[in-house]
Amino acid sequence: MIVRTTAGEVRGEPIATGVRFRGIPYAAAPEGELRFAAPVPPPAWDGVRDAREPGPTAPQRQRTIPGLDLSAVVGTGWRRGPEYLTADVWTPGAGNRPVLVFLHGGAFIGGTGSAPVYDGTAFTRGGAVLVTVQYRLGIDGFLPLDGGATNLGLRDQLAALRWVKDNIAAFGGDPANVTLFGESAGAISVACLLGSPLSTGLFRRAIVQSGHANMVRGRVEADRLVRKIADGLGVEPTAEAFRTLSTEQLLDAQDAVLKPGGAPDLRGEDGLDRSFGLSPFLPLVGDDVLPEHPGSAIRDGVDLIAGTCREEMLLYFGPTGLLDVLTDEQAVAMLSASHPDAAGVLKSYGLGDGRKAGEVFVEAMTDLVFRDGVEELVENHRGRTFRYEFEWRAPRLGACHGMELPFVFDSLAASAGLVGDSPPVGLAREVNAAWTRFAATGDPGWAEGETKRLG
């Protein structure tokens, strides 16, 4: 199948339920003067572009959790090449079909929209078009340098949505019926775009999976990070200076602030580090993308699904064995780096009352990092809102962060390292059908006001 886009023709690969296209540029390569600049449309090409193989990914270095293979979700590492602002499209064929646009997670420093779990076959089987997006990460995407554009990762996502609006009809999708969804950093991005004036008219519905609008930074905290990285590199904190550095140099500098104790103090005036130490790189409040806090600027008229996994933080602490050896004092010390009243918070969850410190810490952090922000997002949203909790427990990881993804995409076969050997196939069909139904109609199949228990 050959489709004509605004930049030229692309050739896809037939699959059992339709056609798949990979690595289609939605913006020009962010190199040279376009590095640290807002995305611009891709240059046109002659002839038919082969879109049957995955394209490059955003520059990144893979972070691992000992004893856990997450490659199905985060990919296998950096696929090099400058032209990485691309989209993959799965379509059942001609029509006027609902469109889902997915933003991957990865703490704003890693991940790819072409990872195996994000296969769109199940969505096309249900009659929908799926688009997955690559966007700038880390220093390239979320470091606000003088002389450069801010929130570049979000600007890339907006450019991808504009590309969808202009091109998706040629792939059989309805540009007036777009659902934007994402998980983790992708969900934070969706929540931010819900509060961005620049996203008006670009999507009709949204799904926020384990993320919310509170994981953002103010200018003061962001400037501390800029200065720390610039000082480490020995350059001025400007886009012009950073353009003289190689991608490898920037990744080295990124690694330095990701090490324990490597980042500056990123707590705001209220004493909170909004990322709770998970990533120094977050969207910035105070520019034209996010002129005000996105949680207070959520747009009317957008249908919303939002939810979490029951045991989010088990992903980070379960496989390492830390839960079994963590002491009360260590739990308080770990949370104190991000919260001004760590001891009081953990005590309210039962620390010191005979419960294991690891269990208390996971429960408290699941709420602080994920669930509380999702509840606030739901409360602030003005429009049709549906809440879920993913509860199915994998053999090793429980209902941890990201566990819903193979079920949302109904891609269990690609996810054995996450879900184990005998995951419930029926649950995957149920969840994927709910997301597809919501994209088509605005109704996932359960009532507003209730929390749907998945699993």
TrEMBL record:
Record-linked Pfam families: COesterase
Keyword field contains Ion transport: no
PROSITE patterns the UniProt entry points to: CARBOXYLESTERASE_B_1, LIPASE_GDXG_HIS
Active-site residues, Swiss-Prot/TrEMBL: S184, E312, H401
Domain (Carboxylesterase type B): residue spans on this chain: 2-446
Keywords annotated in UniProt: Hydrolase
Name of protein: Carboxylic ester hydrolase
Annotated source species: Amycolatopsis camponoti
Gene3D superfamilies per UniProt: alpha/beta hydrolase
Protein family per UniProt: Belongs to the type-B carboxylesterase/lipase family.
Lineage, highest ranks first: Bacteria, Bacillati, Actinomycetota, Actinomycetes, Pseudonocardiales
GO MF annotation list: cholinesterase activity
Keyword hit for Hydrolase: yes
Enzyme Commission (EC) number: 3.1.1.-
InterPro entries linked to this entry: AB_hydrolase_fold, CarbesteraseB, Carboxylesterase_B_AS, Cholinesterase, Lipase_GDXG_HIS_AS, Type-B_Carboxylest/Lipase
